[in-house]
Amino acid sequence: MDNIYDIVIIGAGPIGIACAIEAKKNNLSYIILEKGCLVNSLYNYPVNMTFFSTSEKLEIGDTPFVTTHPKPKRTEALEYYRRIHNKFELQTKLFEAVTDCDKHNDIFNITTTKNKYKAKNIIVATGFYDIPMLLNIPGEELEKVKHYYNDPHYYSGQHVIVVGASNSSIDAALETYRKGAKVTLVIRSNEISQRVKYWVRPDIENRIAEGEIDVFYNSNITEITASAASISTPNGVITIPNDFVLALTGYRPNFELLSHFGIQMDPRNSMIPHHDAMTMETNITNMYLAGVVCGGLNTHLWFIENSRIHAVRIIQDILLKQANF
User: Fold this and answer.
1) What pLDDT does residue 2 have?
2) Under a CB-based contact definition with an 8 Å cutoff, are residues 259 and 272 in contact?
3) Strand 30-33 vs strand 4-10: parallel, antiparallel, or unpaired?
4) What is the DSSP pairing of strand 272-273 with strand 98-104?
């Protein structure tokens, strides 16, 4: 393929889409490459998920996000971003994963599972939801262990252990409990995370206080078998019958891909990829980061609402370089 794009954008999430909109507004040629479906990470969120952010903070492309409630649900967000993508007629290749990227004479050569592309600039907007943080314990490979949670009905009548104290863990615990699961929370700290949504916290605290959801604080799950699970608690190791383990212990960016691209990361600082905070350019000239991938293991630093500005910063830097060339 001899066509050289001004920009190749890796990732068709909300921020990748925002970058494409900004590129198109400024008459820059671009293409988005996405290994899954449109806004793939959002698609894989739990079906009943409610965003912490209000709808106006999730808006991109100067287009209102109209919802029936102040805080939109997953289905509303999927519809909004699909309509935004169609409204701007963005050039996107879905289900096409980037496998390699090298640079020669200031041109990036990008290889995917389906094609090859050339570009003057690359924007990496790959998010962090693709790779779960593993427990690294015996039995984690069993089919009963899930690192992603979707629909609570699946767990009706089952004994479910939920590992974690974050929003995803607490939502899963409450939803599966209300569908008839026997739920046990395993939390390594001494309390529910302070980041849990403020309207959810009283609910989980009340369910625990009433004995409707069991909880082990300062504890870790240590082994999983086909019919049980062992938990290390302050009072020793206990083993309880168990049907499913939802190990919702967080996710991380694809550091292997970033490293393969040549992007430097600081292991002493949560593996945050090297980038200029004002231009979002990495240690590789004309390769940029956008969105939550910028936070490394600190996945709570960046969200849609505070990383939308990345698109403007990146395109402005590209245009400034072109003007000075």
Assistant:
1) 65
2) no
3) parallel
4) unpaired
Is the full-model pTM beyond 0.85?
Answer: yes
- Tell me if residue 240 falls in helix, strand or coil: strand
- Give the list of residues 6+ apart from residue 252 with CB closer than 8 angstroms, or none: 128, 131, 132, 133, 271, 296, 297, 299
In order of start, what are the domains of the chain with their CATH numbers? Answer: 4-131+251-324 (3.50.50.60), 134-247 (3.50.50.60)
Which structure tokens are listed for 2?
């001899």
Query: Among candidates 222, 247, 246, 219, which has minimal Cα distance to 233?
Result: 219
Tell me the β-bridge partners of 160: 183, 244
Per-residue confidence (pLDDT) for residue 302, from 0 to 100: 87
Asked if 56 contacts 66 with a C-beta cutoff of 8 angstroms, the reply is: no
Strand partners, 215: 185
Contact between 41 and 293 under an 8 Å Cβ cutoff? The reply is no
Give the three-class secondary structure for 139: coil
Q: 44-87, pLDDT tens digit by residue? A: 888 888 898 899 999 999 999 999 888 999 999 999 999 999 99
Backbone angles phi, psi at 93, to 5 degrees: -110, 110
